[in-house]
Amino acid sequence: xxxxxxxxxxxxxxxxxxxxxxxxxxxxxxxxxxxxxxxxxxxxxxxxxxxxxxxxxxxxxxxxxxxxxxxxxxxxxxxxxxxxxxxxxxxxxxxxxxxxxxxxxxxxxxxxxxxxxxxxxxxxxxxxxxxxxxxxxxxxxxxxxxxxxxxxxxxxxxxxxxxxxxxxxxxxxxxxxxxxxxxxxxxxxxxxxxxxxxxxxxxxxxxxxxxxxxxxxxxxxxxxxxxxxxxxxxxxxxxxxxxxxxxxxxxxxxxxxx
Length: 258
Prior knowledge:
Blueprint: H1 7-20, H2 24-37, H3 44-57, H4 61-72, H5 79-95, H6 99-112, H7 117-133, H8 137-152, H9 160-183, H10 190-212, H11 217-239, H12 249-257
Helix pairs in contact: 1-2, 2-3, 3-4, 4-5, 5-6, 6-7, 7-8, 8-9, 9-10, 9-11, 10-11
């Protein structure tokens, strides 16, 4: 009886009855049809929630993720529901390896919910991982620096987890500095090149010091090791540095001793 005034309620109740029996595969098409037939119904939001669960129950992870995204964009939903839905969507996209969709969802989490410190920190960390997988070093660096800044600005909200993520990010971002230091050769005139190498060394040592200051055991250990390694490299490079071309044998021997 398609023109009956009770059709809307009957169709929704049919889906609810199927759900109560655990018949999710039969309930989801009924819910889809209900939403298409009655887009302005006050029960549409409930239908969307049920559809998201229904897709998960039937193993349709991709459609479930899409449904949670729909909920996240629904202004009729509460802010808490929209945030949770966006998180669920990102998680489900990750499970089915929909990296671009996951990245888009996580970027919206970071942009929309800056007050959710722990959640947005994890989102930033996952975005850094995605950038690494997609071979986007500049993007990864951006998110690592964002993690460090977010932890630094968190005040009383800082946690062991946030310090760990910030410490490992600092350690990773120091590696290019260390490589630049190691690759800088000492050439004549030694005074000039030595000054450049020393300045780069001090900059790198300061960065490793910041990483160690987080108090994360494995990061402190790695930083201390790298610092020792840098002094060793500096010593080796100094001994192997280019000699002035105008020295006789005796002067060259004295130069080496000095």
